[in-house]
């Protein structure tokens, strides 16, 4: 921050001698200026600025690097379990990390482990727990559980210095033969497989080869070198007890890869085995700030660009066509309707002007409509802010659970905007019971969400999964709902209801006009099918990546793309809604309030169909409870998406209807 020289500024005219008050104000201003300059110098003197909680940790050689366990996950069951739900080696004292709301809802239970890892200190092979002459004995029950988790394809997730463990996968891409010999494609799998199956036999990965990469920081010659952890890999191996040669100091020797047999887990009897690990350190050029790039690198960024460009071109092409058609048609309509000399002929014609006395007639159930639209506004504000903040990099995956925590709190605080818009619309629709309306807005959509989540949570509790929300967290969420969201919705509703209602440009007739018989294509369901195609087509590629992140334990971090897709979605929903309401009014059907809300959310129907397609083709879920979880959470997503797109379309259509009726002369 630079302060320009005083010479560049015009001198202030001196009018009178400074008073005592002005002297005090000037001295206070000087104090503030000194404070700001001091703060700027302090910030300037620091090396760099980091978001709280994600600043780098510097290690010296031999410093302990703690390995913690997060959870066990499987895309086949969708049920996370905590690390010590299986009979792994335990430290003398088990300590769980205090978790934020997002981590609890994700099923993370971060806990310490007995792995002893020191910065830049190699370990060839070490027994994790129990002496070599006293191996770990799994009971029949434990063996059954271990075999079941291996069959269900579970992955173990560990972290070192907040960096998740990854398994390196090397494979040849579809290149020419000569190029194949030169380079392999490397991808990383999150976590490591608990074990594997060969026929009907189960094998456990009981030896972990940790490969940790460090970046040596530049320091002055007199200072000791500092290191930062920049990558955490693991090579899991299954080695039979007899092949692990261990001494009394808990050191062991790994057998040659060709001659070793894997460690089988027989679920019908007790099994004896050793848990062992080795540690290898490598220096890396990767800076600490770029250490997450390995996990977040997507091999298919081009697909995103193609989909974005395709969506933008389609949306703008259709925008151009729709704008030309509607603007030309509307101009012609308005010009015809406004001809003073042909007013009688005009009244005999069919068209949207004929329903001017009924177009703003309040619909049935105005309280429910305004409540749903209020929740839609709440969702819109929350999603917009979350995506924008995440796009700026403030909700990175290194801050575990930050995205979900932020979304929950923002939804609560956005209640004031939801209440305001719902209250104003309710008054416009001639509503009088504002207290009941505010309560309906604050409880209708959140109540449905809470009810579905509670039922699903009961099933997850029954499976003893860490994905079950603990009772204290559920009470805390209820307190947030009734202690933060409800009062804010009431506050917003009160001010919205007191504000002047929306100014409708034409008066409503006493007697409702008869609606002529409608063509088949004006049917609600046909309208939903037609209106949903364009918004869904603009976003379905991104939907695939979002589903992969949710259901297949992938990281999603392309919020820049998501922000563009969200803007395209808003534009396309608005356009389609305007076109559909124009056709409806031209057919002399003035019951557009509810219909516009339903039809604009038509893309949610396609999201539901896509979710079923994804379940059948991409996921390997066969059991009842995982299927119930998938379709339960999908139903919530579809409901929320319908509210969001319906609200966007409704407000676009409402603005359009007010505009066109304000442009014609009504006697």
From TrEMBL:
The chain crosses the membrane at residues 305-327, 371-395, 401-426, 438-462, 474-497, 525-551, 557-585, 597-616, 628-657. InterPro entries: EMP70 (IPR004240). Keywords: Golgi apparatus, Membrane, Signal, Transmembrane, Transmembrane helix. It is a multi-pass membrane protein. One of its GO terms (biological process) is protein localization to membrane. Residues 1-23 are annotated as: Disordered. It is found in: Golgi apparatus; Membrane. GO terms for cellular component: Golgi apparatus; membrane. Belongs to the nonaspanin (TM9SF) (TC 9.A.2) family. This is Transmembrane 9 superfamily member. It comes from Hirundo rustica rustica.
């Amino acid at each position: 921050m630079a302060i320009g020289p005083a010479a560049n500024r015009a001198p202030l005219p001196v009018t009178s001698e400074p008073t005592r008050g002005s002297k005090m104000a000037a001295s206070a201003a000087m104090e503030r200026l000194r404070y700001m300059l001091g703060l700027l110098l302090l910030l300037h003197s620091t090396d760099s600025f980091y978001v709280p909680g994600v600043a780098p940790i510097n290690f010296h050689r031999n410093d302990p690097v703690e390995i913690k366990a997060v959870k066990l996950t499987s895309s086949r069951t969708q049920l996370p379990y905590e690390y010590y739900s299986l009979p792994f080696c335990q430290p003398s004292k088990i300590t769980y990390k205090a978790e934020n709301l997002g981590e609890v809802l994700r099923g993370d239970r971060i806990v310490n482990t007995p792995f002893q890892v020191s910065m830049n200190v190699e370990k060839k092979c070490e027994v994790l727990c129990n002496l070599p002459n006293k191996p770990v004995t799994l009971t029949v029950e434990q063996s059954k559980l271990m075999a079941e988790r291996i069959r269900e394809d579970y992955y173990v997730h560990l972290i070192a210095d907040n960096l998740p463990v990854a398994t390196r996968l090397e494979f040849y891409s579809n290149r020419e033969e000569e190029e194949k010999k030169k380079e392999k494609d490397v991808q990383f799998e999150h976590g490591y497989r608990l074990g594997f199956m060969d026929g009907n036999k189960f094998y456990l990965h009981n030896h972990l080869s940790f490969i940790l990469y460090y970046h040596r920081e530049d320091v002055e010659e007199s200072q000791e070198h500092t290191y930062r952890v920049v990558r955490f890999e693991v090579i899991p191996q299954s080695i039979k007890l007899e092949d692990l040669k261990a001494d009394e100091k808990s050191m062991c020797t790994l057998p040659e890869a060709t001659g070793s047999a894997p460690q089988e887990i027989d679920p019908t009897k007790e099994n004896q085995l050793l848990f062992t690990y080795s540690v290898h350190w490598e220096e890396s050029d990767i800076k600490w700030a770029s250490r997450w790039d390995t996990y977040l690198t997507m091999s298919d960024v081009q697909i995103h660009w193609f989909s974005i460009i395709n969506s933008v071109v389609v949306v703008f092409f259709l925008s151009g066509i729709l704008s030309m058609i509607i603007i030309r048609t509307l101009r012609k309509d308005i010009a015809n309707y406004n001809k003073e000399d042909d007013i009688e002929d005009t009244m005999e014609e069919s068209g949207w002007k004929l329903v001017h006395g009924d177009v703003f007639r309040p619909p049935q159930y105005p309280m429910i409509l305004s409540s749903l639209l209020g929740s839609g506004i709440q969702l819109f504000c929350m999603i917009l802010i979350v995506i924008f903040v995440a796009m700026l990099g403030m909700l990175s995956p290194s801050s575990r659970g930050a995205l979900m925590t932020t979304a929950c709190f923002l939804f609560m605080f956005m209640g004031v905007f939801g209440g305001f818009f719902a209250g104003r619309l309710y008054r416009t629709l001639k509503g009088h019971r504002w207290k009941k309306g505010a309560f309906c807005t604050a409880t209708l959509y959140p109540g449905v969400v809470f009810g579905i989540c509670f039922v699903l949570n009961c099933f997850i509790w029954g499976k003893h999964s860490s994905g079950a929300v603990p009772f204290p967290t559920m009470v805390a969420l209820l307190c947030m709902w009734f202690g933060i969201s409800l009062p804010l919705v009431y506050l917003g509703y009160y001010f919205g209801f007191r504000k002047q209602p929306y100014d409708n440009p034409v008066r409503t007739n006493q007697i409702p006009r008869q609606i002529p018989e409608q063509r088949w294509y004006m049917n609600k369901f046909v309208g939903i099918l037609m209106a949903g195609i364009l918004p869904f087509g603009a976003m379905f590629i991104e939907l695939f990546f979002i589903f992969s992140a949710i259901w297949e334990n992938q990281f999603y971090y392309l919020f820049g793309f998501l922000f563009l897709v969200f803007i395209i979605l808003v534009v396309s929903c608005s356009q389609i809604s305007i076109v559909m309401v124009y056709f409806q009014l031209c057919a002399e059907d003035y019951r557009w309030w509810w219909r516009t809300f339903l039809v604009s959310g038509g893309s949610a129907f396609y999201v539901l169909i896509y979710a079923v397609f994804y379940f059948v083709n991409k996921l390997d879920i066969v059991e009842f409870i995982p299927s119930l979880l998938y379709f339960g959470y999908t139903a919530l997503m579809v409901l929320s998406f319908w509210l969001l797109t319906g609200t966007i379309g409704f407000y676009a259509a409402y603005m359009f209807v007010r505009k066109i009726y304000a442009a014609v002369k009504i006697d």
